[in-house]
Amino acid sequence: MMLGSAGARQQTELCNESLMLEKLPACGRSFEEMMKKVDSKKWCNLTEFIMYYDNFTQCTEREANNASCFWPNPLAEGFITGIHKQFFSNCTSEKVHWEDPPDEILITLILIPVMLTCAMITLVVWCSKRSDILV
User: Fold this and answer.
1) Which of 35, 76, 105, 116 is deepest in the core (most CB within 10 A)?
2) Nearest to residue 79, comparing CAs of 15, 18, 28?
3) pTM of this structure
4) Whole-angstrom Cα distance, residue 72 to residue 115?
5) Which residues pair with 9 in a beta bridge?
């Protein structure tokens, strides 16, 4: 059954999980073949293999839909997680360690706005007392 405005197929059949699990490894093998073209040192740089990963994602989605399953689903996610562990297990993101600047810089960064604020207040008060000269 087709939905008019979205054009998406309404899933009325039950998900054939065994068919999906039978077909998903072909997506993994295809992705593995494509990843052989990428130097393993560059596996953590998404720009090096984004097209291959997109093809892999589309393949898993297509196979899930062909088996009348929604995508993503827990079984497909488990398969995708396995691929991630195989290729990207060493791609840990390094946490940024924030440090305060040295005291000299910190004091300067604090004092400049404080001094400018004091100077502006002094100027406003002085000008308000001398309004007869400024007009």
Assistant:
1) 76
2) 28
3) 0.59
4) 58
5) 2
Which residues, in sequence order, are bridge partners of residue 2? 9
Q: What are phi and psi of 9, to 5 degrees?
A: -80, 130
How long is the chain? Answer: 135
Identify the three-state secondary structure at position 66. helix
Query: Which one, of 82, 18, 28, 88, lies nearest residue 57 by Cα?
Result: 28
Comparing C-alpha atoms, which of 30, 84, 107, 104 is closest to residue 62?
Answer: 30
Among the listed residues 31, 25, 10, the one whose alpha carbon sits nearest the alpha carbon of residue 75: 25
Please give the Cα distance from 7 to 29 (Å, whole number): 31
